[in-house]
Amino acid sequence: ITNTNALFVDLTNLKASRRLTGFSLFTAQFHAMFAKRAVYFFRRWFQFLPTLLIPIWYLAMMIWLTQTIPTAKEMHPLVIDLKPYSTDEKAAVILVEEPQQDVSIIGQVVHAMDPQPTITGTGNLTADVFDLINTIGSRAYGIQYPVAFTKSELPTTPLVTLFNNFGFATPALAIALSDSLLGLTMHSDEEPFVFTAINHPLPPSTADMMKNKATTQSTSIIIGYGIIVSLAMIVSGYCTFLIRERKKNSKHMQLLSGLPLWMYWLTSFLWDAIFYLVPLGCFIGLFFAFGVQELVGRATSIIDVIVMTLLFGWTAIPFVYSFSFVFTSAPKGYTMIMLYNMISAMIGTIAVPIIAQTVDADIANLFVYRSIVFSFLFPLYNVSNMYQTLYNNEFYRSSCIALDCSNSLFQVENPQCCGTDDERIYAEDVLTDFTKRGVLIGAIFLALQGFLYWLLLVAIEMGWFGAIRPCCKPKQQPSVEEYRSVEDSDVIEEKTTVHELRPESTTVVARDLRKRYGALDAVRGVNFHADKGDCFGLLGVNGAGKTSTFRMLTAEASVSGGDAFLAGYSVKKDWRSAGQHIGYCPQFDAVLKELSGEETLRMFARIRGVPKNEIDCLIIIMSVQIVKGVVDAIGIQQYARRQIKSYSGGNKRRLSLGMALVGMPDVLLLDEPTTGVDPKARRTIWGILSKVREAGSAIVLTSHSMDECEALCTKLAIMVAGQFRCYGSIQHVKSRYGTGYSLLIRLKHPSDAEKTRRRVLETFPGAVIKEHHLVQMNFMVPRSSSWSALFERAEALATELQLEDYSLSQTTLEQVFIEFSRAAASDEISFQSVKTLPGAIDEECYSSASPEIAKKYYDNEIVDDDKRF
Prior knowledge:
This is ABC transporter domain-containing protein. The structure is a single chain. By secondary structure, this protein is α/β, with parallel strands linked by helices. It contains 35 helices and 20 strands. The longest helix is centred in the N-terminal third of the chain and has 29 residues, at 261-289. It starts with a helix and ends in an 8-residue tail after the last helix.
């Protein structure tokens, strides 16, 4: 970028631009959340498709299995003809005894019915039949030779038709052929015609239907199993996106940017509820396809299925939301929630019907009540039981409506069908029936469970469990000795200043901020403040407490002691309001890799309430000016519309910075913002942040780059073992804590090294050689004289020794930082031996570990109390 001033001339105006409020803001945030879910879904459709297809396939298999169970039902009419007796290899054979019978006439009638059979004449029918039976066997004979024709012994009977008892429905077939031959004989001048015999089975009686009660219950249980497995797989999939978003810290970034918690969960619920309607429609389609009349035979039944399934969705979705907090791995969360649902539902589905069949009425009644308990505790068992109840009820109802219950005889003989309401075995509508024949109790349970799980979700999000747990735990004594207080006068002065400040009048205030992990004090009462236009740098080695401090400032971790105020809002008491004024660039990129850079920026712009007509302008600033300017060296502008998963690590850092800058918040919290960034792009970022600071934002950053701190920070602190060891402007820190001056000498010849070393030590008493590389020597010179005197002696020495070049400079910030790091390493605290597991920390937790090592151990192994469930 050649003209940084021109590039950011509008930053001040952008910071002061209008922001949406009220309903307009909620609409923009709703749009942002739905757009996020839509983009994620369509770019990961291959993940969601199996969670829909496999459950549907499984339920279809269960319904198909019920079709194979024999039941008493009305059979279809059966046309009786010769086709069943012919196969592809062998045609049916009709035997005709000659010469008494006219073979050709019989052939006309037979072939009019079926052209396949063969007409065979025989001189002695009886003898030939015995021979055939002996040759091919009675079974084969019965299959291939259904009927035969012979002469009649009576003069009044011209024809005798014989039927084979081994054949199926051969008597009716023989009669139909005989009648057809008689008709042809009476009307010989007409075309042959045949009579068709049709078997119409009698419909099963109500008694027959009731005898199949056990079969009906078995069918309903199989359908119940299908519902359990299918719904368990479907609803468990709703946790995967939430776990991934929370693990990536993207959810916290959205909440920190001003997204109301209720808006996050409302949009999540609406999205999942809409997609929950798809399997519901598939379920009803399967019931129609397989002809499960008990579930879709009446409009009332269809409504009952819809209401029951929707009520389960109302309960199951917040249940999955609540238990998603237990897991940090999406596949593990999906599997465990699915198994929990299946097992809890299967236990009741298997146990309750078996025990209910016992002859002991008291035990049976006990398990009826236990079924009610199961229904209240386990929503999936409840809805499965409701499906079974509906199936059984509709089966009994369809069996009973065949009776004329207005007949007093039926009312006496069949009270289960025609008796009073208490006597009848079925209900007109199970959804409104409060007795054990209906499902109204189960429906009420599902509605109540939904509210309870939503309340549980609110409790988890508001940290109520985290507030309860410390009260239930015994007070824990620290297992480590208290660190020696090494606060110097500058740190004490800043502490005094912070305690006198009014939080509402200062942009950033950290007052006695503490964080404890078990028995370890990771942050030990730090105090600092930053006002508009300030940039406060937090330096320290790994494990010094920098990230823990940032996590408290952004409410990722609870505050163990003290408080912090951002734009006048307490992080400890009202971090959501404070978050609306924060732009946060975390140490690890909190982005959804399925979104593009531009889509991510648009989402955060909507969350922060940037008006729609300004978003495109903002995207231009962010994706073409800021993002392009930040990473001009790598040309991120050409990747702005590509998915983030294709970005390099450096590109993701620039995007994280762009997310923090959206809306130009009052406070920027930057945790190592240029990690993994090349030098050219790093300097571009420094230019951006300098302009942002000049525009009136307060910046708090951590960094391992001393150059970055010197370029950006107006004041800084070096953190050692959880507390500040120095505080002030960069020049003040270098002047006060620097050990002297650095004299860098470049020789003309390597052979001059020893002479030069001796003369420098003579000229500057107390000087120490720090480095020597061939023709380059670096000395640390004590601060014993003024700058002018030191330069005068250095110039004289350069002339005397004919040096190639030399430089005399003040101690660098990096050298000050290294000295503090060395002091921290030499000040390790010994801990007692480790005898307990992570999560049960007491005075026997550690053995000879430095504070940095102990902190690293806790960072890797321990989850904050308020974040665990």
